[in-house]
Amino acid sequence: MIDFQSLEQQCPTCHGHGRIENPKWAHFWKQHDNLKNWFRSLNTEEQLTIAEKMLPEEPAEPMFFLCKLCHGRGKTLTSEGENLIRFVRFWTNPNY
């Protein structure tokens, strides 16, 4: 019987999420959160107009990038899993 747990492991690059956060967006959200506490005494309209002027523009890039190591799966093959895939490809492909 095949132990499927031994064939795959969590992706070390994305830690199983399948995607990697864009650092430009992380910087944008950090600045956004820092502005929240600056305007507690002002009313909402004043807060919004001042914050809009102070915030940098949103990055034009996506918030997340697809992980290149696991291709968005969140898991990678172990050496045992790679050996099994090579075995299956060899026996299923007549031109191998």
Count, helices: 3
Radius of gyration: 23 Å
Oligomer category: single chain
Order of helices and strands: EEHHEEH
- Largest sheet geometry: 2 strands, antiparallel
Which range best describes the helical content: under 10%, 10-25%, 25-40%, 40-55%, 55-70% or over 70%? Answer: 40-55%
Summing up helix and strand content along with how strands pair, one would put the structural category as alpha+beta
Q: Which strand order does the major sheet show?
A: 1-4
Quick rundown:
41% of the residues lie in helices and 12% in strands. It has three helices and four strands. The mean pLDDT is 84.
Architecture overview:
There is one protein chain. This protein is of the alpha+beta class and 96 residues long. It is built from three helices and four strands. The strands form two sheets. The chain has a two-stranded antiparallel ribbon. The longest helix is centred in the N-terminal third of the chain and has 14 residues. The two termini are 26 Å apart.
Topology:
Blueprint lengths: L7 E3 L8 E3 L1 H14 L7 H11 L9 E3 L8 E3 L1 H14 L4
Antiparallel strand pairs: 1-4, 2-3
Keywords:
96 residues; rod-shaped; alpha+beta; single chain; two-stranded antiparallel sheet
